[in-house]
Design goal:
Radius of gyration: 24 Å
Low-confidence stretches: 33-97
CATH architecture of the largest domain: Alpha-Beta Complex
Number of helices: 15
Bound molecules: 2-acetamido-2-deoxy-beta-D-glucopyranose
Helix content: 25-40%
Structural class: alpha/beta
Distance between the termini: 80 Å
CATH topology of the largest domain: sialyltransferase cstii, chain A
CATH superfamily of the largest domain: Glycosyl transferase family 29
Mean pLDDT: 82
Number of domains: 3
CATH class of the largest domain: Alpha Beta
């Protein structure tokens, strides 16, 4: 009799706890769903952020039909009408760090040093903020790598079996020398065979070949720049690099007015809403566009099948814009940079190309005495605001949307030569140019 009673008792308990677990799952899913519903502003710049918030793609504005219609429909739930179209980057579902699990506070006013903060307090605020931020980067990296264990996505067929090390246990100069050895560059006419239709449009030389600048600034498009008052500091550099469609007009006080070079992803070159051929943002400045090919694609394969068809506008710009200085990143060199990031990170990274920010850094290091990255590592000014020029709100912009951002930032911080007050209160890191290195 007794064993039967015990068995039943255990069974009832299991049933009860099982139910509780199930209720909890339902309840948390419901809340995730509700959180997704509160903020319906689609980002015109990165619909993946929208996807992250809502679990489905924005409806109207976006063009380009996904390759596998059925799958896309399922993914986008019932919110999409059958005939509406949108862009899915490489047919892959973007992965996002689990920002909801984070206890990192993005509204970090309490860590800011004010004029009346004494040195000791300022130092302790800075240190506390820094530890929190670095912990958050490490957490995001770990979080992403575990997501990959189950059904890892590999839209670019990336293969990597090399060793993985922790950048934080390496000597910064060694890491910088590794980065110097990574090949990275823009395409020249001589890179293409004579019969290629693209060849006559390419420049004869690589970008800034044989040029040198003492001080260079990379201006991240980060929301933290809003109200930063860094404009004059930024303009004091010999070269200023900006990204995509980041404006300067009306934001001069915070981001400066000088632009030497812009790095563009291929969506900016191709999508209608950016009005690439007419906008003044892309005139009288050096342009470098990039578009990812598969991990082992040859140049020829990439030209036949880029992710976004950027060559039409590329040729048009080269043909019609006076003194067009427009370059294309050699797509094969993108993955060398990814390998660099992965070999300096213990966890597995998402198998997507590095961000434009990191490409910009590698592009400038050989031709600059030093490179200042402004609000790339978020300072205590950080908020959930994505960009200084719009009001979209999302923490994923700082910690990673699609690109392996957290790893890039952790590595960049390791290479920095300024003190923590400058990095986390003033808002920039400085990396010495390759010329100064003895590798
Ligand atoms: C183009 O840029 C140069 C140098 O930055 C500047 O001197 C010139 O005025 C600019 N021209 C136009 C039309 O904006
Ligand atoms: C890239 O790889 C995928 C899968 O391995 C393949 O389906 C696709 O055609 C490749 N694209 C190019 C441009 O080679
Ligand atoms: C950081 O560097 C700045 C500029 O060189 C200097 O004024 C400041 O005292 C330094 N702060 C600390 C905490 O070392």
């Amino acid at each position: 009799m007794r064993p039967a009673v015990v068995t039943i008792w255990v069974f009832i308990n299991l049933l009860f706890f099982g139910m509780c677990g199930y209720m909890y799952v339902l309840w948390s899913q419901y809340w995730l769903y509700m959180v997704g519903e509160v903020n319906p502003t689609p980002s015109p710049y990165d619909q993946q952020i929208y996807f992250y918030n809502h679990g489905f793609m924005p409806t109207e504005k976006y063009i380009l039909i996904p390759k596998r219609k059925e799958e896309a429909k399922i993914r986008s739930r019932k919110h999409l009408k059958d005939n509406s179209t949108f862009t899915v980057v490489k047919d892959s579902k973007p992965r996002f760090p689990n920002v909801r699990n984070s206890n990192f506070e993005l509204d970090t006013r309490k860590y800011r040093c004010k004029r009346n903060t004494n040195d000791f307090d300022c130092l302790s605020r800075t240190t506390e903020y820094k530890e929190k931020l670095l912990r958050e980067f490490r957490r995001v990296i770990l979080d992403e790598s575990s997501a990959f264990k189950s059904g890892s996505e590999n839209p670019y067929s990336v293969q990597f079996e090399g060793p993985r090390e922790n950048v934080e246990s390496k000597i910064p100069d060694d890491v910088l020398c590794d980065l110097k050895r990574v090949e990275f560059g823009t395409l020249k006419r001589s890179d293409l065979p004579v019969e290629s239709y693209l060849r006559p449009f390419l420049p004869k030389r690589a970008v800034f070949e044989n040029k040198f600048f003492n001080t260079c600034a990379i201006v991240a498009s980060s929301g933290a720049l809003y109200g930063s008052n860094l404009g004059r500091f930024i303009d004091s550099h010999d070269l200023v690099l900006r990204f995509n469609n980041a404006p300067t007009i009306n934001f001069e006080k915070d981001v400066g007015k000088k632009t030497t070079i812009r790095i563009l992803n291929s969506q900016v070159v191709t999508k209608k809403e950016f009005d690439f051929l007419n906008s003044n943002l892309y005139k009288n400045v050096t342009l470098v566009a990039w578009d990812p090919g598969n991990y082992s694609s040859s140049l020829d394969e990439w030209i036949r099948k880029p992710e976004f068809q950027l060559f039409e506008n590329y040729m048009e710009h080269r043909r019609t814009v006076e003194k067009s200085r427009f370059y294309l990143v050699d797509p094969r060199t993108l993955w060398g940079l990814w390998r660099f990031l992965q070999s300096n990170t213990m966890s597995r990274l998402r198998k997507n190309p590095p961000s434009s920010g990191f490409l910009g850094l590698r592009l400038l290091l050989p031709i600059c005495g030093s490179v200042d990255l402004i609000e790339y590592i978020p300072s205590t000014r950080v908020t959930k605001r994505c960009h200084y020029y719009d009001t979209d709100i999302n923490a994923a912009c700082t910690f990673g949307v699609w690109h392996p951002l957290a790893a890039e930032k952790l590595i960049t911080y390791r290479l920095n030569v300024l003190n923590d007050t400058q990095v986390f209160q003033q808002g920039f890191v400085r990396i010495p140019g390759f010329k100064k290195m003895n590798c």
